[in-house]
Amino acid sequence: MPGLFGIISKRQKLSEQCLLNMGRRMADSMRRVPWLRAEIWGNESFCGGSVHLGVLNPEPQPLTASDQSTQLWFDGEYLPRFMANDADLTAEKVCELVSGCGSKLGDLDGVFNLACFNSETKELVLANDRLGFRPLYYTETDDWFAYSGEVKALLAIRDKLPELDEISLRQFFSFDHMLGERTWWKGIELIPPASLWRISANGLTCHQYWTFDDIRSNPQEEADVQVEFSRLWSEDVRRRVKPGTMPILLSGGQDSRLLVAELRAQGADLVAITFGSKDSPDMKIARRVAATAGVRHRPCYLNTENWWQHREEAIWQTDGLINAFNFQAAIAMNEVHTGNWYSLVNIAGDLLFGGSHLDGTLMQDWRLAPENLLIERYIENPFFSREEGVSASVADVQRYAHGRSPDCFHLHQRMRRFTLHGPGCLAPYCEIVFPGVSYALLQLMLGCLSDGQRSGHKFYNRFLATWYPQYYGDIPWQVTGRGLAESLFTKLSRAFRRRLLHLLARKGNRISPDQWFVNYPECVSKSRIREKLLQEDLIADQFLGGAARRALADGEIQPLRAPLLVSLLTFETYLRRAAGMPSLMV
Residue 75 and residue 4: Cα distance in Å, rounded? Predict the structure, then answer.
């Protein structure tokens, strides 16, 4: 996503003009829409800057310390945990936070990256939030070290494309996304969560200032946790409300509904945006929620004609790191670029509050064998077996086997490397922030409740039905098709409809995962993706050893499922864009 970028000379071989030219290439690669701002600063040993919307961090950067020695770039939210009112951001305050091993960075909530450069010592400091939810990539040569919020900016300063990472190839087709810190390219990786890095001519030192093991166990009664959850959630949302109309993505799930309910309770001005087909569960439920909340509702209808719209842009925006099959939100790019260009997303609610990823068969020994968490996520494909995908990924997941439950792993892997790219594809159009992942809420959910209390949405459902009954009582949840505390009238009405459908010999609205937002098999068939891929000399097959063409021609999976075809199209589309070649989907 748009964000920070910079390059520091390691051996004094690069001139100031060379550094500035490289910085400009990085900025140009990230600034792909006219409203994004680009700021660049440099001297004889460093060039850095940011590309941003001017919403979260509108003040010109870098911020300079009073002694003129330190320049600061900050991208994201500055939310001190121990202050009643958020203090202003200054270079001096950030210098204090990053002193030593960065332990004071744990005093910040929110999602952020920062870069500090000291002109006297010629030392660069990079740091990010405890969950690493705002991506920052890096690469280096013998002469320089570079970082950026987008992989493409690092490709822009390379003489040629790096070698493709074969392990990333296995991970992409086995799990729909990368694991650990990998990208498509060898030598370009993601900076891990809770990092404080120091880069100078003397080398690179890395510190991790926080892990999930820092969350202490403090069991409490569920009723007390509900009260505290209500307080903390309300506070987390309130700290992020901004003046003006906020575009909010509203689905048929629980998390976005909770956000809309709390924002309306606080009097926020909203416009709710929903994507999906006219008859999709999300669209039907979102209409009812928006009406209950009394907010405007803007549907973004997906159909067989427009389903690919903006997805190629989303692939390049997210550096091809996940299957474009999951980019339903891309259709809403123009819709979220409205109002104050600022949106809240309850990204981790289902996982953190609802315990949806907890599995009793894995919870006991997950830290001893975290690869078991990958086995259940493997996606059948004709290129790599489950054993090949999992075995190639063990080293990447083992270092995230900490914390008291598998949710800690999924927050760092599934959430950070997959789910976040959904709203991430909208980043050039709207600044997105994430209430619900403050340290206090992490402590409450992971330290004060047991996995058994959270698993299966037991705690979450009881909380929602108790504290927001008008939004959850009778309005159904997309997963079950039922409200959490239905009235007798609602139950009787549903029973009557079911009986009527039975008498008319009609099937119920059972929807497969391939058709949840729109009928993807029909979309893929009508777009003739298989035929288009077969007609081309695929770059992808250079790395798949001809397996793509064989699968397309021979039908190793009969027929090739829509998500698999789109994953192959995603890979090919990204490779072509990186190589400056024309698109397949014209």
Answer: 7
Identify any residues that bridge with 270 across adjacent strands, giving them in sequence order. Answer: 246
Q: Scanning the structure block, which residue is given the tokens 């870098």?
A: 62
Could you tell me the CA-to-CA distances from 63 to 82, 160, 399 in Å, in that order?
A: 23, 34, 35
Helix axes 166-175, 386-398, angle to 10 degrees: 110
Structure tokens at 149: 């919020």
- Compute the distance between CA of residue 108 and CA of residue 126 in angstroms, rounded to an integer: 15
> CA-to-CA distance for 471 and 409, rounded, in angstroms?
31
pLDDT digits (tens, 9 = 90+) for 371-414: 888 888 899 999 999 999 999 999 999 889 888 888 999 999 99
Query: Which domains occur in the chain, in start order?
Result: 4-210 (3.60.20.10), 222-351+423-485 (3.40.50.620), 352-419 (no CATH)
Give rounded-to-5 percent helix, strand, coil for the chain. 40, 15, 40
Between 225 and 551, where is the model more confident? Answer: 225
| Cα distances (Å, whole numbers) of residue 505 to 185, 281, 508 | 54, 21, 10
Q: Please write the tens of the pLDDT for every residue from 449-507.
A: 998 899 999 999 999 999 999 999 999 998 888 999 988 888 877 777 777 666 776 55
- Report the first-to-last Cα separation within the chain, whole angstroms: 25
Cβ proximity of 339 and 244 under 8 Å: yes
Task: Give whole-number Cα distances, 358 to 70, 223, 363, 396, 407, in Å.
Answer: 45, 22, 7, 21, 7
Q: What is the torsional sign of CA 515, 342, 337, 311?
A: negative
Instruction: Check: CB of residue 91 under 8 Å from CB of residue 65.
Output: yes
360 pLDDT more than 70: no
Rounded-to-integer distance, Cα 345 and Cα 335, Å: 15
Tell me the β-bridge partners of 9.
144
Residue 32 burial (CB count, 10 A): 15
Contact 320, 573 (CB under 8 A): yes
Task: Report DSSP state, residue 582.
Answer: P
Residue 428 and residue 212 in contact, taking contact as beta carbons nearer than 8 Å: no
Phi then psi for 431, rounded to 5 degrees?
-80, 125
